[in-house]
Amino acid sequence: MNRVVQTNLIRFILIFLAQIWIFKQITFSLGGVANIHFLIYPMAILLLPIKTSKTILLILAFVLGMTLDMFYDSPGVHAAALVFTAYIRNIVIALLEPFAGYNIDDVPTIKQLSLGWFVSYVSITLFIHIFVYFSIEAFSFVFFFEIFLNTIFSFIVTFIVIIILQFIFRTKY
Amino acid sequence: MNNVIQLFLKFGVHILFVVLEVICFNIIINYNSSQRSVFINSANVYAGKIAEQRAKITDFASLKSQNDSLMHENANLIENMISMEYAEDFIPKSDSTYNQYKLIPATICNSTINLHNNHITLCKGSREGIRKDMGVVSSHQGILGVVRNVSPDFAHVISILNSQSKISCSLKSRFGHGTLVWNNNDPLRMNLESIPKHEKIAYGDTVITSGYSTMFPKGILVGKVESYTIKPGSNSYDIIVKLFNDPINVKYAYVIQNRYGDQQNKLEKEVVDE
User: Fold this and answer.
1) Which of A54, A143, B223, B246 has the greatest CB tally within 10 Å of its CB?
2) DSSP secondary structure string, chain A?
3) Please, which pLDDT band fits residue A144 given cuts at 50, 70 and 90?
4) Does the distance separating the beta carbons of B13 and A83 come in below 8 Å?
5) pLDDT tens for each residue of A38-74
């Protein structure tokens, strides 16, 4: 159990640093149609063990979101989106529960659960997260078309990056 | 009370979720409405330090492009400098911002020293601003002559080694002034006349230009007193001056442009005419 906490803590911090140092810089505009953001930081919450207490999930999400907001100069936006993602995470996990159920130590990674499960889990939660993020950022549904385009394109690139990262770092926990 | 605890146990997570979201939205709305700097932005110390570290690395990576842009800027400045040099003639000059004397560098094309009336030709003329009656000094110390004639690209200078040359000179830290003439055949020695004999002089006294003419400013070093005599019946010294410079081997010269020379000459001429 101690190993699990250790691994998750290190991963949590690494994902945070990668987001602010690397992926924050790679923001580009797709020919004026959509702005593409790489938002990999939800993985810090999504990859926590399945049986993690919901309270801890929410508090971690709030702290991570607020810290990111310091760097993004967008007070509260990431935090609100990430708290929401942490809240729906367990609902999605429950929806995707296999017949055999989850083990007590399961971590939602490709290695422990199947690739198909991981893809559906990440795509649902990530899409919701990015959509909520852009919605809160715009703070109005007047820009629905822009929000939707931004969400689609950002979701595609972020999803590819996350899958690649999953194949590179094949942690057991 | 029991019910409240029951409620928290049952819906604790949902309540926490709502509370956190309310906090987040409160921050968002406050920030958006007032735009005042809050704690949660990149300006605070820790976020700023990390951003600074990252900037150091990225700055290093962008050195090449920065260099390029600096090179372009330099090239631009040099271009401006060159064009300014050419444009200077067309820019109306404000009198007050310039010194009274301006030096025009020139190379010496041709000079004679063996004649009784020697001449120098400069490779610059009226195009560069050289005019009649301007003084010419050599590049180190000592005077060379006075411009007599100018063409667009050349200037004809009457050397001080010319029997017609008369330059007003005085002795440094002494009173009185005289005229520097050349009436012997030694190109290194000249005569200073008209210093009244009641003035005290000594061997080795430095001869400088007096500044009474419009050609030379005051204080240009000419030479030093080598010997002096008083001719019987004369009222002034006859001083032999050894020149500091060697007028034979001069390659470069400066023409002295006196910005107020014309004014002075005109005024003095008016007085004479009256």
Assistant:
1) B223
2) -HHHHHHHHHHHHHHHHHIIIIITT--EEETTTEEE----THHHHHTS-TT--HHHHHHHHHHHHHHHHHHHT-TTHHHHHHHHHHHHHHHHHHHT--TT---TT--SSTTTS-HHHHHHHHHHHHHHHHHHHHHHHHTSGGGHHHHHHHHHHHHHHHHHHHHHHHHH-----
3) confident
4) no
5) 888 888 888 888 888 888 888 889 999 888 888 776 7
Confidence of residue B83 (pLDDT cuts 50, 70, 90): low
- The H-assigned helical ranges of chain B are 2-34, 45-61, 63-87, 261-273
Domain residue limits, chain A = 2-23+30-168
ipTM above 0.90, yes or no: no
DSSP state of B27: H
Residues in B lying within 8 Å of A, measured between beta carbons: 12-13, 16-17, 20-21, 23-28, 30-32, 38, 40-42, 44, 46-47, 50-51, 54, 58
Confidence band, pLDDT 50/70/90 cuts, at residue B39: very low
Least confident of A55-64, A122-131, B81-90, B178-187: B81-90
Domain A2-23+30-168 = CATH 1.10.1760: yes
**What is the rounded CA–CA span in Å between residue B100 and residue B12?**
90
What angle separates helix B45-61 from helix B63-87, to the nearest 10 degrees? 70
Task: Copy the structure tokens of residue A45.
Answer: 């919450």
Beta-carbon contacts of A24 under 8 Å, excluding residues fewer than 6 positions away, are A71, A72
Pair B137, B144: CB distance under 8 Å: yes
Q: Select the residue of A62, A72, A75 nearest B20 (Cβ to Cβ).
A: A62
Interface test mutation site (partner A, options B15, B24, B41, B49, max chain A beta carbons within 10 A): B24
Angstrom distance (rounded) from CA B200 to CA B175: 8
